[in-house]
Write a structure and sequence with these properties.
- The protein is α/β, with parallel strands linked by helices.
- It folds into 2 domains: 183 residues, Rossmann fold; 147 residues, Phosphofructokinase domain (Rossmann fold, 3-Layer(aba) Sandwich), CATH 3.40.50.460.
- Helix content is 36%, strand content 20%.
- Strand 4 and strand 5 form a beta hairpin.
- The longest helix is centred in the middle third of the chain and has 22 residues.
- The protein is elongated, with a radius of gyration of 22 Å.
- Bound molecules: 6-O-phosphono-beta-D-fructofuranose.
- The site of 6-O-phosphono-beta-D-fructofuranose has 13 residues, from strand 12.
């Protein structure tokens, strides 16, 4: 028999649409199916360090009407790793070190028997490390980047692709009116899933992704070829992590206080400037940025988030701690947190999706 009576739930890392749908599913399953108490831990691991003041009971009322809301009612942080944490000690001095024991102690004090962590690579890595310390942890994979191994899809990705596709549809009409090249920069970190999905759905002429280093001359040639066929505008979707064959990724800022300090951005402007000169059409760059992470989740993401939330509680009740829920094909499954960390899932440059895009003349700059 499971001894679990009270569970904690937290959201960590960059937010994405669908987090609230998971929180709702966890809370409803825990309370209605198993009679558990649910405690929300605000601001991710920062809240775990702060303890009581960041712990809030979650009731059915609290999760009513949140399935369609973007963001997270528990707030998030993508800077706080309690195994390497910057904090102020008793004497008011700033220190850095492993304060994970404080987190474990705070869970004990609050009578929290198990923890559901909803997050990406960084959040789940800490989840694994707390699991190694004996905390009963279940992970739920989120990210618009869709780059987590051990799951076919993360929630948030479908929404981000839809938002980016809608943006491309809008940019296409103005590109056409003005005979311009519009370069659309999508997020995605070091994986090209988001740019690839939105580029295919948005009918892009070229898609540049980190997995296929591009030659700008090849992209220009493809656009000129289209021009010769009578298409006097172009849409080029560039992943923020894309890099040219002889260049490097473009970094927009380095956050000293973050466990994952590199923020990408700026390759869209670079590509637009180069293509303008090479193709002879005016070019503009649009950086979609955080708009891809905001607002209402799609129906698919709401369903996936709900499936993940319910499955997370089921795993806890079955005593299968130290695992992350996952989607394999169309089945909900799970895998050990030990296996899912550190390994990024990239686009296969010779996979079906890329080859399909090549078949319809989408240029990857190769
Ligand atoms: O991982 C999600 C993501 O949106 C990436 O696509 C992007 O590179 C990064 O987070 C942006 O981080 P921040 O919100 O710190 O600017």
């Amino acid at each position: 028999m499971s001894k679990i009576k009270r569970i904690g739930v937290m959201t960590g890392g960059g937010d994405c649409p669908g987090l609230n749908a998971v929180i709702r599913a966890v809370t409803k399953t825990a309370i209605l199916k198993y009679g558990l108490e649910v405690v929300g831990i605000k601001h991710g691991y920062k809240g775990l360090y702060e303890g009581e003041k960041a712990f809030v009971p979650l009731t059915l009322h609290d999760v009513t009407g949140i399935i369609f809301k973007g963001g997270t009612i528990l707030y998030s942080s993508n800077k706080d790793n309690l195994f390497d944490y910057t904090y102020i000690d008793k004497d008011g001095k700033q220190k850095r070190g492993d304060v994970s024991d404080v987190g474990v102690e705070n869970l004990k004090k609050a009578g929290i028997d198990a923890l559901i962590v909803i997050g990406g690579d960084g959040t789940l890595t800490s989840g694994r490390d707390f699991s190694r310390k004996g905390v009963k942890v279940i992970g739920v994979p989120k990210t618009i980047d869709n780059d987590l191994a051990s799951t076919d899809t993360t929630f948030g990705y479908d929404t981000a692709v839809s938002i980016a596709t809608e943006a491309i549809d809008r940019l296409r009409t103005t590109a056409e009116s003005h005979s311009r090249i519009i370069v659309v920069e999508a997020m995605g970190r070091y994986a090209g899933w988001l740019a690839l999905g939105a580029g295919i759905a948005g009918g892009a002429d070229a898609i540049l992704i980190p997995e296929i280093p591009y030659d700008i001359e090849v992209v220009a040639k493809a656009l000129k070829h289209n021009r010769a066929r009578g298409k006097n505008f172009a849409i080029v979707v560039v992943a923020e992590g894309a890099k040219s064959k002889d260049g490097d990724i473009v970094v927009s800022k380095v956050l000293e206080n973050s466990p994952d300090p590199i923020r990408l951005g700026g390759v869209g402007e670079l590509v637009a400037g180069q293509l303008e000169g090479l193709v002879g059409l005016e070019a503009r760059a649009t950086i979609l940025g955080h708009v891809q992470r905001g607002g209402t989740p799609t129906a698919n993401d709401r369903i996936l988030s709900t499936r993940y939330g319910v499955a997370a509680v089921e795993l806890l009740m079955q005593g299968k701690f130290g695992n992350m829920v996952a989607l394999r094909g169309n089945e909900i499954s799970y895998d050990s947190l030990e296996n899912v960390i550190g390994e990024l899932k990239n686009v296969n440059p010779n996979g079906e999706l890329v080859n399909m895009a090549r078949s319809i003349d989408i240029c990857f700059g190769e």
